[in-house]
Every structure is written in structure tokens, then in C-alpha cells.
Amino acid sequence: xxxxxxxxxxxxxxxxxxxxxxxxxxxxxxxxxxxxxxxxxxxxxxxxxxxxxxxxxxxxxxxxxxxxxxxxxxxxxxxxxxxxxxxxxxxxxxxxxxxxxxxxxxxxxxxxxxxxxxxxxxxxxxxxxxxxxxxxxxxxxxxxxxxxxxxxxxxxxxxx
Length: 160
Known about the structure:
Number of strands: 6
Radius of gyration: 16 Å
Strand order of the largest sheet: 1-2-4-5-6-3
Order of helices and strands: HEEHEEEE
Distance between the termini: 23 Å
Largest sheet: 6 strands, antiparallel
Structural class: alpha+beta
Oligomer: single chain
Strand content: 35-45%
Helix content: 10-25%
């Protein structure tokens, strides 16, 4: 037996509403815009700002974006953003106010890097969504299409 009422079409969130619902905020939000969003995938973008403090030490004179922040950006889009959309659609808009998404696992392979001021496109494709757990295949590419990293990320909704 389900403990929720099925959502209505009014509970389908727009990309702008999903972006506003993502709990990570500046300076730790690594999504600028959601370009596409539906039941199966999300496409988002982010430009890594050259003034970000982490570039001072990673690496002086030849800065690159830390891999952990690339994975964070992938997770914010492919797990948190897509998860918010799917949860609201399944359980209603009110459901997203009572949960926060935590990462449960990630397996990512890197094949490139991101320099300051580069814009990346993050694409997440749902593998499964059930019992508040979402697993997505997520990839990050530079604007020119160069693959930076890809892998499986998962997270689950936890009551606040």
C-alpha cells in the first residue's frame, strides 16, 4: 500500500522550478541552467567561474577544476535535479519540501579536464527510480562535445 496520493499534471515541475528547488546554493551550486527535462533524462549546463577560490591552489599557473567538483556538478543535475522532478511528478510538489537528496554511490571515469571559464553540458539518464532512490548514467562534456567524464551516480531522498 502506498502512503501517498498520485500527483496530478499540476505537479509536473518546469526546469526553472526544479533549479530553484535544488538545495545547493552559491558558491556550491554547479548548475546554471536546465536545458532539457523529462521522465527519462536531464540536460544542464554550468560555467566554471575563473574567480572560484579553488583554482588558486589547483594548480597555480595551470588551473583545472577538481574532479570532485565535476562529480558534484554531475550529481546535482543527474541525481538531485532529475530526482526532484521525478519525485514531484510521482508524489506531488509538497513531497520535495520534506526531503533532501544524499549521494549513495558514484563510479566515474575521467577522460578530460575542465579549465576555468569553460562551460560544461551535463546529461543524466535515469537507470531506475524507486523507493526514493535514483540511479542515473551521467556524462559531462565541454561545449565542443569533448567528453570530460561519465559514470553511474545514485542518491536517495532522506526526510529532513
